[in-house]
# Entry
Amino acid sequence: MTGLPEGTRFAPPELAAAREKALAQLRELYSSWGYLPVEVPALEHHDASHPREAQAFKLTDKGSDVLALRSDFTPALAHLVASTYPSVAGGERQALRLRYAGTVWHAHHPELAGTREFTQVGIELVGVSNARADAEIIHLARESVRAVGLAPRIEVGNPAYVKALLDAADVPYEHQLALADAIDRKDRSDVLALIDALGLRGRVADAILQAPDLYGDEGVLDEARRLAPNAAAQSAVDRLEGVLTEFEDASELLLDLGLARRLSYYTGVTFRAFTLDYGQPLLGGGRYDGALLPYAAGFSLGLERLMGAVPQGAGEAGITPQVLTLDDPPARRLRAAGIAVARALASEPSAAEREALAARIPFLLVAGAVRSVGEGGAAGEARRLELQAILSGAQGDEA
Amino acid sequence: MSSTPLVLALPKGRVLDEAIGVLRSAGLDLTLSQDERALRHAGQHATVLVMRNADVPTYVELGVADAGVVGRDVLLEHGSRLYAPVDLGFAACRLSLIRQEGATGPIRRVASKYPRVTAEYLKRLASPAEVVELAGNVELACLSGLADAVVDVVQTGATLRANGLTEVDVIVESSARLVVNRAALKLKADVLRPLIGALRELSGR
# Structure
C-alpha cells in the first residue's frame, strides 16, 4: 500500500510546531484555572451504547473481544471519574476540574472535509450544576479561541427550553425528535407542517413555532419567557439569564433558545464558538447532567479545526534555530537563555558558514564570537550584539 | 457600521432568475455582470456565486457562502443540517416513486438521482430493494428494464404520461428554500435577520 489511509495526514515541522504551541497555550489556560490533567486509554471496549458508536473504529482483541479506538474523550472521562471518584459519580456534590488532550478516531466523517484522526482538547467540570459552573465553562471556551489569536463569538442556548415545549406539547418521542430537529434547523415550514400533522394548537403550538427565531441579544430572554407555556420552560430561561449575569462583558455571547441538538444528551446550557469569516464552529459543549455523570459540563475542541481558522502565517512559530555553533561550551549559555542553537556538523568555520546559509540559520558561533550569516541588516546586527552579550555573561552566570 | 457584505450561493438555470428577483424584492442590492458565463458576481452589498444546485448545500455548509437558495429535494439528498428558515414557494415539485403504467410486480431495484432519499424511503417501507444511482434521464431506467421503479422529480407529470409512466407514491414535496450557514446567521444577523423577515413576508409563509 502506498499513501496514507483515508482521513489521515502528516504534520510537517511548521504545522506541528504551530499546533504544539497552541496546545501549550491551551494547557496553560486550563491549568491556570485549576484544571488538572488526566489521561485515558486510546483503546476502549466497544460499547454499542457509546454516544459515538456509529463512528467507532473497531478492532479485534486477542480472543474475540471487540475494541474501539477512542472516539470522544467525554465518555472516557466519565469512566475515569466513575472508577477514581466513585462518590462524585454517585452524586456527591464535589467539584472536579479535569482537562485532557489527545487523539481521537472516527471511522466515518459525516462532516465535510473531515479527517478521521484528530486532536481533541477540552475540559470537564464535574460534580456541580449551577449557573456559575456553566459560566466558567463558557468563559474558558471563549478564552480558548482567544488563546490562538482569534476573536471569539459564542452562541449560547439552553435546549432544556425546547425540551420543555415538547413535553408541554405531549407528543410521542419520535415526533419530539422530528420537531426538535426542525426547530434546530430553524426550518419554519417543517415546524409548521409538523405542528399541523400533530394537531398542536394554542399557546404551546405558538411557542414551538416561534422557538427557532429566539436568537439574538438579551431581548430574546423576555420573548422566550412570554412564550413559555410551563414552569420548566421558565426555569430554562432563568438558568440562561443566571449564566449571563456571571459575565462582566456578555457582548461576545449570542443567545439562541432554538438550539435543540442532541436533546437526549445535553440537559442544560449548550454553546458553540465561532469566529468571523469562518463558517464552521470551532468548538462545542454544554451541560449533560445525568447523561454520563450526575452533574457535568464541559467542551471539546478539534485542534486541527481551530488551527484551520487561524489565518496562515499569523500564528507561525519560529522553528528555525537562531544560531549554528562550532563551540559547545558557550552554546550552553545561549540554550539556557532559551535560544535554539544547533550544532554545526561541519568541522571548520567556512564549511559551517555554508551549512548555516543552507539551513537559513542567521548566526554562527565560532571561538566564542557570534557572526552574522548573510545579510542581516541593522536589526540583524542588534540581535547579534544581544546574543554576544548573553555569551559574555551580561545576563548573569548560571551554574 | 455599514451592513456586512453577504456571499450567496445560487443555482444556475431557471431558479437563478427567480431567486435573484425575490432577493431584490426583499431589499438586497444585487449586482450581476452581463456576462452569462460569469461564475462569480462581486457587488458592494453581496457577491453571488453561481453553481449547480446540488453544490449549493456544500458551499453554504462550509461557510464559503453565507446563504443560498436550493430546493428542499436537493437539501434532503445532501443530508446537511443547514438552517432553512424560509420556504420561498417557487420551483415547486415533488419527489415521487414512478413505475410503468400497470406494473404490479415486486420492486427489486430502484434507480434515482436521489440515492439517499430513495434509500431512506425504502427503509421506511422496510423494502429490501436495491438503489442504483443514475446521473440523468432516470425514466429510461424504468422503460428499459434497468429498474422496476424510479424515484425522480415530478413537476406537472407531462413527461411521465408521454412515456407511459405513472406516479405511484409522493415521497417529498419540495420548493425553493433559503438556506443559511449556521455561523453566518449569528455573525451576520444584522443583514440576514431582516432579509429572512422580508422573504417570509414576500412568500406569505
